[in-house]
Specification:
Layout (H helix, E strand, L loop, with lengths): L8 E4 L10 H12 L5 E3 L6 H11 L7 E5 L4 H15 L6 E4 L3 H9 L2 H12 L5 E4 L6 H8 L7 E9 L2 E2 L3 H10 L3 E4 L7 H6 L7 H17 L4 H9 L5 E7 L3 H10 L8 H17 L10
Parallel strand pairs: 1-2, 1-9, 2-3, 3-4, 4-5, 5-6, 6-8, 8-9
Antiparallel strand pairs: 6-7
Helix pairs in contact: 1-2, 4-5, 4-6, 6-7
The chain binds NADP nicotinamide-adenine-dinucleotide phosphate (NAP).
NADP nicotinamide-adenine-dinucleotide phosphate (NAP) binds next to strand 9.
Length: 299
């Protein structure tokens, strides 16, 4: 299974697409990441990050990392065509893990073990996409829950992938409970939820949406009481306090912060049960009162 090869820290490539940073600096950041022997997470929508990655890959073709990439489609052909186009842009031949961003009939067919399941097996058997992770959000949790309960993800979906950090747990409560009951593997997105908790709480506009600022206000005292030195360490330990979390995906344009993510994903100590219970109660509450009522894609 590809999931067994995953690095515990996966570099998220959004910051490589920030054109306010010099191109050469971003290429150097990409090359730095490639030297760490870790996976990367990417998507063709992250600014011009693909151009940066392509240039870095051309410079060091033997160091091209394993890639998780977001993929879309309502049929086998659409999925394959989309990936083909993106891989050509990157100059890469096959994809290590496709992050299924699916809904509608395709997701329902997968839940029932229908044609979609067959399509995923065929794609994987062809070797073009070597494995799949299933992306979920609070507002898309129902169909994956049916799929999971029906056992139709076994042997084809390596992991669920969703925002999982102290301020966001983006599998709705019922799906979350089932994932935990089955101990289905998870890839946790947005390691530090966008930055240090005090900045999210105190600097107007630092949190891109108001609910994150409010949550930072609720979680900051728990973080302070923990006596853990940095928010990055707290967040990495939070993610890996769940035994089924296989990796956390965080981004930075700064080599120093990338090193920080890496440092904290070595010899990880879980957080105390008391802290996990406190954050867990908040997350159950946030999920039911806010997340599942949100206008899709506004969080
Ligand atoms: N649906 C999806 O598939 C989905 C959605 C969102 C994200 N993702 C993936 O997850 C990755 C990470 O997501 P993310 O970037 O939203 O979350 P993140 O890793 O939690 O946050 C990274 C951001 O926090 C900033 N930051 C970190 N430490 C800081 C500090 N001490 N002071 C100020 N800023 C600090 C970084 O800025 P600097 O660059 O300045 O360090 C960067 O902008 C993405 O790159 C992407 O690959 C996937």
């Amino acid at each position: 299974m590809m999931i067994d090869k995953l690095s515990q820290y996966v570099y998220g490539t959004t910051r490589l697409g920030d054109e306010s940073l010099a191109e050469q600096t971003r290429i150097e950041t990409a090359l730095h990441v490639m030297n760490q022997n870790i996976w990367i997470h990417t998507c063709h929508k992250y600014g011009n990050s693909f151009e940066i990655l392509r240039k870095a890959f051309q410079q060091e073709p033997n160091k091209i990392p394993h890639i998780i990439m977001k993929i879309w489609g309502n049929t086998k052909q659409e999925l394959v065509d989309g990936v083909q186009e993106n891989l050509e842009a990157l100059g890469v031949k096959s994809l290590d893990m496709g992050q299924l961003c699916i809904g509608g009939e395709f997701a329902e067919s997968l839940a029932k073990g229908g044609e979609a399941l067959q399509a995923l097996h065929e794609i994987r058997d062809s070797g073009f996409i070597k494995s799949f992770a299933y992306e979920v959000f609070p507002w898309t949790s129902e169909t994956p829950l049916q799929a999971l309960r029906n056992g139709n993800l076994d042997g084809i979906i390596d992991a669920f992938i969703f925002y999982l950090n102290p301020l966001q747990r983006f599998a709705a409560n019922e799906l979350w409970n089932e994932i935990q009951k089955q101990q289905f593997p998870i890839i946790a997105l947005r390691t530090v939820s966008g930055g240090p908790v005090h900045k999210l709480r105190d600097i107007p506009g630092f949190a891109w949406v108001p609910y994150l600022q409010e949550r930072a206000g609720e979680v900051a005292p728990i973080f302070e009481k923990s006596n853990i030195d940095t928010w990055t360490e707290f967040c990495v330990r939070y993610a890996f306090s769940f035994l089924n979390v296989k990796a956390t995906v965080g981004s930075s344009g700064s080599i120093e912060r990338i090193q920080d993510f890496l440092k904290h994903t070595r010899d990880i100590k879980p957080l105390s049960q008391e802290i996990m219970n406190k954050i867990g109660s908040l997350q159950y509450h946030w999920s039911d009162t806010v997340d599942i009522h949100a206008e899709p894609w506004t969080m």
